[in-house]
Amino acid sequence: MTTEKLMSISKEDINEAAKRLEKTDLPDLVEMLSLKEDNIRYQAFLLLMSRSAIFNDVYPFWDIFCDKIKSENSYQRSIGLMLIAENARWDTRNRTEGIIDDYLVLLQDEKPITVRQCVQSLGKIVAYKPELSCKIASKLISFDISAVRETMRKVILFDILNVLILIRQKYKTDEMESFIQNALSSGILDEKSKKMIKVLL
User: Fold this and answer.
1) Would the CA dihedral through 7, 86, 169, 105 be positive or negative?
2) How do residues 114-152 score in pLDDT, each as one tens digit?
3) Is the pTM of this model over 0.85?
4) Contact 31, 65 (CB under 8 A)
5) Where does 129-190 have alpha helices with state H?
6) Exposed, middle or buried by CB within 10 Å (0-12, 13-18, 19+), for 191?
7) CA-based nearest residue to 65, from 53, 82, 51, 50
8) Is the CB of residue 156 less than 8 Å from the CB of residue 115?
9) Are 147 and 126 in contact (CB under 8 A)?
10) Which pLDDT score, from 0 to 100, does residue 171 have?
11) pLDDT recorded at residue 34
């Protein structure tokens, strides 16, 4: 896979292009994730995310994604956490359990967007690894929303509630229920967000 070929794919054609990838393209795409050029890196990321949703041949690069979540670069941390979550569905070796503590550290990331991407990605991990629900729920209900930049609090809290609602379909605790009710009455969420959460409850 050359950068020219990669960049010739339109955003609308990403899913189709992902289906048509050769396995020999994958190492090149994974390598491109480390490039400094935003456009190339992002295009490679989109293609790998789309591929991961339908085939298990991106999963062998798992260790590379795990290294990325410890990167000093926030873009690399985000890329790593999202590709791990997308490939959790193929994780028959239960490697997710081995890295979940490192993964959850990203809930305290210095970049609010990375925190949000981590929370959203936990929804995918819970869907494919329900055995991690207890640990994930515990971290989410102890999340200090006041530590987040004020402009990001509403969306991050909304994302947290969505993951907890997914978890509570199979696993409920009094602490979770209390967190949800407190969040709804905290004044952080707007009326539209509250209504959406109540419908899901």
Assistant:
1) negative
2) 999 999 999 999 999 999 999 999 999 999 998 889 999
3) yes
4) no
5) 133-141, 150-167, 174-184
6) exposed
7) 82
8) yes
9) no
10) 84
11) 95
